From TrEMBL:
Residues spanning the membrane: 6-29, 58-78, 98-122, 134-156
Subcellular location: Cell inner membrane
InterPro entries, sorted: CBS_dom (IPR000644), CBS_dom_sf (IPR046342), CNNM (IPR002550), FAD-bd_PCMH-like_sf (IPR036318), FAD-bd_PCMH_sub2 (IPR016169), Ion_transp-like_CBS (IPR044751), Transptr-assoc_dom (IPR005170)
Biological role: Involved in cadaverine and putrescine tolerance in stationary phase. May facilitate the efflux of both cadaverine and putrescine from the cytoplasm, reducing potentially toxic levels under certain stress conditions.
Stretches assigned to the CBS domain: 284-341
Organism: Acidovorax bellezanensis
CNNM transmembrane domain span: 1-199
Sorted UniProt keywords: CBS domain, Cell inner membrane, Cell membrane, Membrane, Repeat, Transmembrane, Transmembrane helix, Transport
Family note: Belongs to the UPF0053 family. PaeA subfamily.
The name this protein goes by in its record: Polyamine export protein
Membrane-related topology note: Multi-pass membrane protein
Amino acid sequence: MSLSQSLFTIALLIALSAFFSMAEISLAASRRMRLRQLADEGDPRAERVMRMQDQPGYYFTVVQIGQNAIAILGGIVGEGAFSPHFTRIFELWFAANTAATLGFLTSFFIITSLFIVFADLIPKRLSMAESEAVALRVAAPMQWCMSLFKPIVWLYSRTTDLLFKLLSLPTQRDERITSDDILAMTEAGARAGMLAQREQQMIANVFELDSRTVSSAMTLRDRVAYFLRDDTEEVVRLRIAAEPFSTYPVCDGDIDHIIGYVDAKDLFQRALTNQPISLRDETLVHKALVVPDRLTLTEVLDQFRQVHEDFAIIINEYSLVVGVVTLNDVMSTVMGDMVDMEYEEQIVRRDASSWLIDGVTPVGDVLRALSLDSLPHDDEYDTLGGFLMVMLRRVPRRTDSVNWGGYKFEVLDVDSYRIDQVMVSRLGSEAATTDTPSAP
């Protein structure tokens, strides 16, 4: 075989090897959702690729047969084509045996380099970048190869299937898409600039509804504006003017004995039409939805949908009221800072290394603000105040502090055993090496 014929044969083998490399990577990297979309748009090749993904055994067997056979042929042809020429060149300076060895090694290096670059790296990078497009183009030729080499493919596939069965290894990939997969895609989209950061955060907040308890979004007990059943009309009017809300619990004696709730719209309607306002009127007071404080926000939304309500009373295991939650509270958790909140922000950044945080701020919001992955014993509390109580093992007092994760959490204000404000400061590298609570 002449040098020109050898070069042509090597080029053809490299092209065939590149084809099999592209076929291998494109099928593995093709996204099922994208292929389904192409199939729905009428592309029959997409259906063919998805069938190959469902049963990839024969497909990859053909790929491996082709790649290994071509690699062996490439070595044989390349050694015969280049070694004699390089040997004659090296014989000008070295002995015959040494020149033959150097000629073989040089030929081997050149052939290997050509295959690595043109039959492996370039095709595989292209297939990774345009996996679906490449998979659609190589599907028909690969199906033809599978038919052509069917007997030998059957032998190798059955042997491989037997080994997989003996070793209890999976033979099909899991196509289920989890919430982690979706979040990873949205984060990648945000980093690439295809998705706004706020939109990505809102999507993340939606998936957090199933892990955040209702207490992370509720209005705390001591901040709930409520009426007593015996309150006079004058008291009701003054309370509405002083604390305007859309819904007010109605209690019998104290907040732990809630008998229902009254809608501010009903009160306003009666006030505008000069009708008497009496909280003993059963047509004015509605039955309240009562939920336990360990429910997740997703479960609360389900409860709202079932009873067609948007307001709920939250109680603990001792049947004491711990707060109230509305549909707007849950939606505000999803929207985050995309909505203009009328109440004071729970997390205020003072400067580049310090934050002023309300003690009732949900732990998830604190982690995001501080760029932390987690806090210790995070299954024992839902708020920043709970974190400090768990770390200190007692009710915190002013100036108590906890060092954790490179931050100092210092209690600034305590109101009736409730932590009002916490100063969070970033510690220096030396101070951040110890994570300990401290007290005056």
